[in-house]
Structure formats: structure tokens, C-alpha cells
């Protein structure tokens, strides 16, 4: 079992930066990659960024505005999503998830939400123009 909790959302203006944090804890932590997903009303949840348990593999899609990092201490990890030059289309509910089979690579498709075994409650990011 893993516990997942996000923090750091908020309302900002176009061009601002925001950093989201997610604390994940549990003895099986290192079996999972960690990732951020975004959902807007009427659309499916989509992947934003992920990082493998070793930290060596990351995937941020086509974005050069987002960066993901992780920090481990025993059975607890903090995974952060740094978002720069935010745009209104970045608005959404951001979820942190633990991805089965430690699946995350820059050389393959972003892991599907079907591979996520544990989710946080989500944190809202609103970017206004």
C-alpha cells in the first residue's frame, strides 16, 4: 500500500511559475515510477511528467516548460513538478500517481493511466490570461 498526497496548486497569471509537490510513502515505493497527470472537465486524465524510481529516466512529453524531480528518504519520496511560463491551457486538476512496473522512459510512450495503482486527491492549478 502507498499513500499519496499532493500540494502546491494555486491560481496564477499567464507566464508565472508554480511548483507542485507530492509525498508518496510505503514500503513498496521503489517498485513504482512516480508521475503527474492532469485532468480537465470533460476530458480524460492525461500524463504530464513521470520519473523512474532510480531517477535516471524521465518523460515530460513535448514540454520544455516542465521539469520533474524526486527525492527519496527511506520509504518516502517527494516528487516535484516545476512548471514555468504557465499558460491558460495548463489549467486543470493535477494528480500524482504511482505507476506499476516502474514504467517511465523518455524513449517510449507516456505510461497509461491504467498503469497507475495509487492516486493522490489532486491539486488544482488555474492559469488566467
**Main β-sheet, in a few words?**
7 strands, mixed
Radius of gyration: 14 Å
Helix % is under 10%
Strand content: over 45%
Structural class: mainly beta
Task: Count every helix, treating DSSP H or I runs of 4 or more residues as helices.
Answer: 0
Give the overall shape. globular
Describe the protein.
By secondary structure, this protein is mainly β. It is 0% helix and 51% strand. It has strands spanning 3-7, 10-13, 18-25, 33-39, 46-51, 58-59, 66-73, 76-83, 92-99, 116-119, 123-128. Strands 2, 4, 5, 6, 9, 10 and 11 form a seven-stranded mixed sheet that branches. Strands 1-3-8-7 form a four-stranded antiparallel sheet, with no helix packed on it. The radius of gyration is 14 Å and the shape is globular.
In short:
The protein is mainly β and 129 residues long. The chain has strands at residues 3-7, 10-13, 18-25, 33-39, 46-51, 58-59, 66-73, 76-83, 92-99, 116-119, 123-128.
Descriptors:
globular, seven-stranded mixed β-sheet, 0% helix, 11 strands, four-stranded antiparallel β-sheet, 129 residues
Give the SSE layout.
Elements: E1 3-7, E2 10-13, E3 18-25, E4 33-39, E5 46-51, E6 58-59, E7 66-73, E8 76-83, E9 92-99, E10 116-119, E11 123-128
Parallel strand pairs: 2-11
Antiparallel strand pairs: 1-3, 3-8, 4-5, 4-9, 5-6, 7-8, 9-10, 9-11
Amino acid at each position: 500500500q502507498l499513500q499519496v498526497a499532493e500540494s502546491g496548486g494555486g491560481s496564477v497569471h499567464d507566464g508565472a511559475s508554480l511548483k507542485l509537490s507530492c509525498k508518496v510513502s510505503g514500503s513498496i515505493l521503489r517498485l513504482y515510477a512516480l508521475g503527474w497527470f492532469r485532468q480537465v472537465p470533460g476530458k480524460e486524465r492525461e500524463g504530464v511528467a513521470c520519473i523512474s524510481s532510480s531517477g535516471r529516466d524521465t518523460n515530460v512529453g513535448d514540454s520544455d516548460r516542465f521539469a520533474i524531480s524526486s527525492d527519496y528518504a527511506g520509504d518516502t519520496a517527494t516528487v516535484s513538478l516545476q512548471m514555468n511560463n504557465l499558460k491558460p491551457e495548463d489549467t486543470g486538476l493535477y494528480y500524482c500517481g504511482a505507476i506499476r512496473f516502474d514504467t517511465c522512459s523518455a524513449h517510449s510512450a507516456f505510461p497509461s493511466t491504467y498503469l497507475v495503482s495509487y492516486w493522490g486527491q489532486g491539486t488544482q492549478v488555474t492559469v488566467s490570461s
